[in-house]
Amino acid sequence: MNTLVLVFHPHLHDGSRINRTLAATAAAVPGVTVRDEYALYPDFRIDAEAEQQALLAADRVVWQFPFYWYSSPALLKQWEDVVLQHGWAYGTGGDKLHGKELMAAVSVGGSIDKYRHDGAFGVTGPELLKPLETTAKHIGMTWLKPFAIHGTMTISDEELSEAARRYAELLTV
């Protein structure tokens, strides 16, 4: 299986211990291609054709990003708007991603107990990811259970190492 990991973190190399570790872990997995989208498109001018070609070569796509205000970073939304075009990803003739898998890999600053209905935020992580799940369904992709790391501000090196191991394992299933 060919897996494409699209990393959406504006400070991947100069401020992201978690996503940098996950990206490096993914890149070491056979059959996985990692693309640092902010490095490719710092001006937000996304090359739709290049991104579409990368998607066509993959069986599974992973959107890896940190939660920013309970959502994804701006470039992921821009990427969706530019790359997932009518007639290509959906609509008449838009079947290019049908049958492929899509997963979100999310780093979350808050602890998992805050992301419960009776927690501080009153909502679960999967509920916050519902727009991405809906996108997957709309473009004919199979939505996979998200991978999440909570409490990233206080995670130990050992916990991060274990999370990275689990991430690599998911990428090979």
Helix and strand layout, with pairings?
Elements: E1 3-7, H1 17-27, E2 32-36, H2 37-40, H3 48-56, E3 60-66, H4 74-83, E4 101-107, H5 125-128, H6 130-138, E5 142-143, E6 147-149, H7 157-172
Parallel strand pairs: 1-2, 1-3, 3-4, 4-5, 4-6
Helix pairs in contact: 1-7
Q: Can you offer a commentary on this structure?
A:
With 173 residues, the protein is of the alpha/beta class. It has one domain: 3-Layer(aba) Sandwich (Rossmann fold). Helices cover 36% and strands 17% of the residues. The chain contains seven helices and six strands; from the N terminus they run βαβααβαβααββα. Strands 1, 2, 3, 4, 5 and 6 form a six-stranded parallel sheet that branches. α4 links the parallel β3 and β4. α1 runs parallel beside α7. The chain is globular, with a radius of gyration of 16 Å. It starts with a strand and ends with a helix. The relative contact order is 0.18. The model has no long low-confidence stretch (mean pLDDT 96).
CATH topology: Rossmann fold
**Rg result:** 16 Å
The helix/strand class is: alpha/beta
Main beta sheet: 6 strands, parallel
Quaternary structure: single chain
Low-confidence spans: none
* Spatial separation of the terminal alpha carbons: 9 Å
**Would you tell me the overall average pLDDT?**
96
The level of helicity is 25-40%
Topology as a string of helices (H) and strands (E): EHEHHEHEHHEEH
CATH class: Alpha Beta
| Percentage beta strand | 15-25%
